[in-house]
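Quick one before lunch.
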Amino acid sequence: MRVVLIGFMGSGKSTVASLLGSMYRKLQVIDLDSEILRTHDYKNISQLFAERGNEYFRQQEKQVAERFNTLSSVVLSPGAGVVEYPETMKALLTPGTYSIYLYASFNSICQRVTDIANRPLFKNADAALELYNRRLPLYNKYCTVAIDTTNLSPSAVAEIISAMITPTTIIKRSN
Ligand code: S3P
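Model of the shikimate-3-phosphate complex:
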């Protein structure tokens, strides 16, 4: 199964992806931001943004998405902004991919977002709210299914996803 988790900063994409990875032995976990940092010498995403800019970051994001677009047993966790880049979305959402939107209310996002070093676009609540509102319809457009994670723990979200993606066998009773 190929799963892509989309959603705003702080929606739990990376945490839920790694929880899913620990639930399924053969499922690879790819966090796009971590992949980008792995091949660069910057200590975090903010430093990369400051030195190379948004366009460069988006190119890198697209390249990582393309590098992994043939994997079929994988959960991918891209950054929140990926939905604004159709070519990257095309590389992520190959046929058969399950795209899951981790929705969370803006209030809960503000409480959850702590790692500012890796979130140069979360400058302040007003700027973040503008981005949040702009992206909301895009998450809805690109998702196969949405989960309201506002009042859920990451492990509860991972359990819900697991129940959705694990094939179930229905055994017909013979009367
Ligand atoms: C971004 C979100 C970040 C990171 C980069 C850009 C965005 O990822 O990719 O700072 O455009 O909202 P998270 O969604 O993991 O915070």
